[in-house]
Amino acid sequence: MKTLQTPIEYLKGIGSNRADLLKKELGIFTYQDLINLFPNRYIDRTKYYKINELQRNSADVQIVGKVIHIKMVEQKKGKRLVATFTDGTGEMELVWFRGQKWIKDSLKLNIPYVIFGKCNWYNGFSMPHPDMELLAEHEGRIKASMQAVYPSTEKLNTKGITNKVKNKLMQNLFQESGGKFTETLSEKLIEELNLVSKTDALTNVHFPKDANSLARAQFRLKFEELFYIQLQLVRKNITRKHRIRGYPFDQVGELFNEFYANHLPFELTNAQKRVIKEIRNDLGSNAQMNRLLQGDVGSGKTIVALMTALLAIDNDFQACIMAPTEILATQHYTGIKELVKGLGVNIKLLTGSTKTAERKIIHEELENGGLNILIGTHALLEDKVQFQNLGLAIIDEQHRFGVAQRAKLWRKNEIPPHILVMTATPIPRTLAMSLYGDLDISVIDELPPGRKAIKTVHRYDSNRLKIFQFIRDEIRKGRQIYIVYPLIQESQALDYKDLMDGYESISRDFPQPEYQISIVHGKMKPADKDFEMERFVKGETQIMIATTVIEVGVNVPNASVMIIESAERFGLSQLHQLRGRVGRGAKQSYCILMTSYKLSADSKTRLETMVSTNDGFEIAEVDLKLRGPGDLMGTQQSGVLNLKIADIVKDNDILKLARHYAIQVLKEDPSLEFPENQIINYTYQLLGKHKNIWNYIS
Ligand code: ADP
Ligand code: MG
Fold it and tell me: In sequence order, what E strands does 144-287 have?
């Protein structure tokens, strides 16, 4: 008996070669995987065109006609196969750049074909790599008015697994399984939400009867996909709250109160107060805190982190703060040390460049409990770093740390310490809900008072002279300037050349001794980097030329201009991060995005977004739309967003609905034992067995 778990090679039409390709290219191992290969889009195959009706920009067109001539044409690289195709109203060319031999041998001359594809116009119409089917076969096939177009890869296409083949395989699968599929949602949900059955949904998503049936099929499948994700997240959250014991910080002690009363350099914003309250609630309970703190650049997360650390110390625990770069760790260290001056808190810094002698002291003090707060880079994660009693781990800029690294922090004490993850790349709420459904989220949605909005402009390279004059004016007012160059892994050598060329040209226009320039990039030794940073921080240099190493966290309130070179090459969140380096003081600050004239549509959108808003959450929304969720979160976490049919951005409403019902189901029946939830429980278990994508979270 074939089931959905049957290996794909058993399906009619699939031999071992095709099976291998499907596994490698699309991750299809079983019948189930194939049936869950959902179409990207659908094409209308009811309409036929004539060649003499084609428009220069005709998208997908379907034409009936014959091939009357075939030839191979030599080109600069390799060959292309060109077939002359006619339908009696005109002629066009069909062109293949790959797989020519196979196609040449199988093409039949002077026999009617149905061709389908995109048309190009260059001195006549042509269609590259058309979908072709003999008219006779085409007519014999069951036809859906809308034909599914499946995800594909270059390799699948060249190896002959075209869309037509995939359609055929899907038909075979439906035939072999009798076209009936086990229901995977409870009757109650189906009724309440007026959903179509699983069988109905799968049938219509692959072979839509009409647009309405397709829409209902998609709705049901998207709901189902998101529902089970939410069910897992919500459930994990519930178990964590019940099961993972945490060290209760039950007192607000002397340190915290003393700091609050006498050392706080400014009034906390309401948002900061609210967040600290949320954190205190967590810490006071008996469960482990696992909280994400979101706040735009400059919203004042550091002080929240520090006050949380003071609570830990007040309760006889140690705390650590981990940052992604040495520069940032050092800055946290100096900043926090300054803030707690006179409070008798012992703070040390541990990074890759900490000397052995100093390390030894740190290790000792950590183990005998003399050290209260350890700040550092991922050097903190090393096994040698043993705390006497770690109660709190704070992670700054979390998207740069991997899951495994965070897991290490969990194991630094007998029961896991409280975890506070801080991120300055705001994640849109919809995404956060999905990604961090099992983390509690706090948001600082208010900037400290008195900040002037940064003025952002987009300028072309040809405006450079004017910009130099502007820099001179700002420096004359006593301000400092950042000039940032892109550094992309693939073109490192070129990028360094740009950076050094830039440095030379700036040095010529801003000569010593009137002007002093710092330069910082990733190829420098840490000590040299620090030295240069230090000079800029102290105001000894007026211009800082750098690659994106300064992206994260650096705080120089006197810097008022951020110039980003080749801004079109940066991602939105990176641009926003960079801009956040200025506007930290009370002075008017500026961000100048320099580009060449050649800009892609996406680059234009990014630049326009930067010019029009300073709001990190708004920027994150645009970024998400441009890049898609997988990319946004980096490869580390893209797995979870590997959704098969739903789209976190576009299906936001369905996501909310799914979350609502997941919560409701679990509220009524936390262990899913009611008879009415049997199907849900069964499906849930099955999903857990087949893809464990949930272990990505802290
Ligand atoms: P981020 O959230 O980007 O880490 P920081 O914690 O570095 O922001 O804070 C940015 C700047 O704002 C710092 O100079 C900090 O001292 C200042 N700051 C933070 N909170 C307040 C506040 N409530 N009032 C005034 N200034 C504040
Ligand atoms: Mg910060």
Answer: 146-149
Alpha-carbon gap, residue 405 to 72, rounded angstroms = 55
What is residue 361's predicted lDDT score, i.e. its pLDDT? 96
Residues of the chain with pLDDT under 70: 1, 140-144, 240-243, 398-406, 425, 428-438, 488-491, 549-554, 628-642, 649, 688-698
Looking at the CA of 577, which ligand is closest? Answer: 1
Q: Is the CB of 301 under 6 A from ligand 1?
A: yes
Task: Report the pLDDT value the prediction gives residue 553, as an integer from 0 to 100.
Answer: 54
Distance CA(577)–CA(574), nearest Å, equals 5
Q: How many CB atoms lie within 10 A of CB 78?
A: 9
Q: Which atom of ligand 1 is nearest to the CA of 302?
A: 6
CA distance 174 to 229: 27
- Residues 414, 423: Cα–Cα separation, whole Å: 27
Q: Is the CB of 48 under 6 A from ligand 1?
A: no
Ligand 1 pocket member 268 (CB < 6 A): yes
Contact 91, 84 (CB under 8 A): yes
Secondary structure string (H, E, C) spanning 657-692:
HHHHHHHHHHHHCCCCCCHHHHHHHHHHHHHHHHCC
Domains of the chain: 1-40+149-179 (1.10.150), 46-143 (2.40.50.140), 187-243+650-689 (no CATH), 254-444 (3.40.50.300), 455-613 (3.40.50.300)
Residue 138, ligand 1, Cβ within 6 A: no
For the CA of 301, the nearest ligand = 1
Per-residue model confidence (pLDDT) at position 637:
40
Two tokens at 437?
A: 């459904």
How buried is 272 (Cβ within 10 angstroms: 0-12 exposed, 13-18 middle, 19+ buried)? buried
Output the pTM of the full model. 0.65
Residue 637 CB partners (closer than 8 Å, separation 6+)? 435, 696
Residue 638 pLDDT:
38
Tell me how long the chain is.
Answer: 698
Q: Which of 369, 406, 359 is nearest to 390 (CA)?
A: 369
In 300-408, beta strands by DSSP E: 318-322, 347-350, 373-376, 390-396
Q: What are the angstrom distances between the C-alpha of 437 and each of 401, 402, 630, 663, 694?
A: 19, 18, 17, 11, 11
300 lines ligand 1 (CB under 6 A): yes
Two structure tokens written together for 258 = 């003393």
State whether the beta carbon of 299 lies less than 6 angstroms from ligand 1.
Answer: yes
Ligand 1, pocket-test mutation among 274, 555, 582, 584, most atoms within 8 A of CB:
555
For ligand 1, atom 22, the nearest C-alpha belongs to: 448
Q: In the numeric block, which tokens belong to residue 38?
A: 């959902």
Helices within 477-591 (DSSP H only): 492-509, 526-537, 572-579
CA 465, 467, 468 angle in degrees (round to 5)? 65
Exposure of 424 in the CB half-sphere (CA atoms within 13 A): 26
